[in-house]
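Run log // design_07
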């Protein structure tokens, strides 16, 4: 079956402007242009749009989605299985938050006693489980089970005040890194401030800080494609810039 822009937009629940933009940036080209100049989409394009929408639900940038879908190694069936796993994880996270909300309601109605620590356990568990799922194997191999377990324990014991400070600090670090990147100088004042903020942020989660571990993590930001995509999402090259800044900050740059 074939669709015009209007019909495909209605089918998918997106705007015609979105489809035209996808055509402009090359992430979703129409199958053909008919004699009247209308874009015509076939089954292949419908399936590709579905994949794009799956990835957008995961807050992935269009540049990264385009790179993934254009890769010779891309397999649609494997991608769908991956989407399914991520959706199941998301459902589990939502279930935990619902449970936390229900407990809070019961607490407010005087049916149970709920400590301040319990009020935020759901959020902390979500963060730990996400990190374990994405980076657990690499972190345990690089730093050892004991170090990772201690880090998780430290997060679970974190007070709400400490957690809020960590979140605020991470934002300050990301904003400073973005400004430092514009200078192009990893040894500059802004870049070194970003490296120091990164260290301060790490100390909220690490049981013990060392320059060697900090430098090793910075290198992993470049070597691991998931970390690299995270830091390069808005500005390609940021991961390498951050690594260089941290290597200079820790005195580990050769």
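design_07 sequence
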């Amino acid at each position: 079956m074939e669709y015009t822009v209007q019909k495909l937009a209605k089918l998918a629940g997106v705007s015609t402007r979105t489809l035209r933009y996808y055509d402009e940036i090359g992430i979703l080209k129409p199958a053909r242009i008919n004699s009247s100049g209308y874009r015509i989409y076939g089954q292949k394009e419908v399936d590709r749009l579905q994949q794009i929408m799956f990835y957008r639900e995961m807050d992935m940038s269009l540049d990264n989605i385009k790179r993934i879908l254009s890769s010779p190694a891309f397999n649609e069936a494997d991608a769908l299985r991956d989407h399914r796993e991520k959706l199941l994880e998301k459902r589990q996270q939502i279930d935990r938050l619902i449970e936390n909300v229900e407990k809070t309601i019961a607490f407010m109605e005087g049916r149970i006693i709920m400590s301040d620590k319990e009020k935020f356990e759901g959020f902390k568990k979500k963060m730990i489980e996400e990190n374990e799922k994405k980076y657990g194997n690499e972190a345990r191999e690089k730093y050892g089970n004991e170090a990772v377990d201690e880090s998780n324990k430290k997060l679970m014991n974190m007070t709400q005040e400490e957690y809020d400070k960590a979140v605020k600090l991470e934002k300050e670090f990301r904003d400073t890194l973005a400004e430092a990147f514009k200078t192009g100088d990893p040894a500059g004042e802004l870049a070194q401030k970003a490296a120091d903020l990164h260290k301060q942020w790490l100390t909220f989660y690490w049981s013990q800080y060392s320059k060697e571990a900090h430098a090793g993590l910075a290198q992993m930001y470049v070597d691991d494609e998931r970390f690299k995509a995270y830091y390069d999402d808005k500005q390609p090259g940021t991961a390498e810039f951050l690594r260089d800044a941290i290597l200079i900050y820790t005195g580990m740059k050769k």
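Strands lie at 3-4, 32-33, 39-41.
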